[in-house]
Amino acid sequence: MIKFENVSLRYDKGEDVLRDVNFHLPAGSFHFLTGASGAGKTTLLRLLFMSLQSSRGKIQLFGKSLNGLPYSYRADIRRRIGIVFQDFRLLEHMTTWENVALPLRVQGQRESDYKNDVTELLKWVGLGKRMHAYPSVLSGGEKQRAAIARAVIGKPELLLADEPTGNVDPKMARRLLRLFIQLNHLGTSVIIATHDHDLVQQYNAPRLVLHDHHIQVRG
After folding, report:
1. Confidence (pTM)
2. Do residues 155 and 186 make contact, with C-beta atoms less than 8 angstroms apart?
3. More confident residue, 172 or 14
């Protein structure tokens, strides 16, 4: 599923954020991505989503090299990925329901085929009464849950989640973790970047640990 070979990244002429990173992850795996603030967790996820390009090294995703991949192919690969950004990136002119349904609409599915699925998922994440609200009136926690629902609604092959429980209470964090685990059981590979040690301890999954620009696979 994912292969990093001697991957390094630096911004402009600064110090390396990642340096000679090497790891392989099989399809259907579940990993937490941990490390101190500023260690490079978000950077690694952005490399996988192809919103950043490595300075050196090779990255493979779904068996394809991302190095020099044409833009049209990048778009195709991104459709196979669900991603939860820390800044949510909800579209302000769309309701919560419309934001969550967007990946399915982009795939060309008919609204009649996914209407009930979107509604049920929003109820499950506690947004049943907010599905017709616009992002401007949602709280941070509500935006986060909407972003998570949008990322998982299409049952992606790979889910990347950047601090997905940072704005919710512990009870909702556990509920969202169950959602990620269930998605993984259905075949989705999952990487959750988090500094929430309690969340990591709730599920005995391997960890990708970022430290001193490098990464270690533990567990």
Report:
1. 0.92
2. yes
3. 172
d(CA 127, CA 117): 13
104 and 154 Cβ atoms separated by less than 8 Å = yes
- For residue 207, the tally of other CB atoms under 10 A from its CB is 18
2-218, what's its fold? Rossmann fold (3.40.50)
- How long a stretch of residues is the chain? 219
Residue 19 and residue 181: Cα distance in Å, rounded? Answer: 30
Backbone angles phi, psi at 2, to 5 degrees: -135, 135
Q: Is the pLDDT of residue 153 over 80?
A: yes
The Cα–Cα gap between 95 and 101 comes to 10
Rounded Cα distance between 10 and 175, Å, is: 36
Q: Is the pLDDT of residue 197 over 90?
A: no
Contact 180, 199 (CB under 8 A): no
pLDDT at 169 over 80: yes
Count of helix runs (H) and strand runs (E) in the chain: 7, 10
Sheet strands side by side (includes 56-61): 16-25, 2-10, 56-61, 64-65
**Helix or strand run (H / E) with residue 99:** helix 96-106
- Over its C-alpha atoms, the chain yields an Rg (Å, rounded) of 17
Would you say 55 and 14 are in contact if contact means Cβ atoms under 8 Å apart?
Answer: no
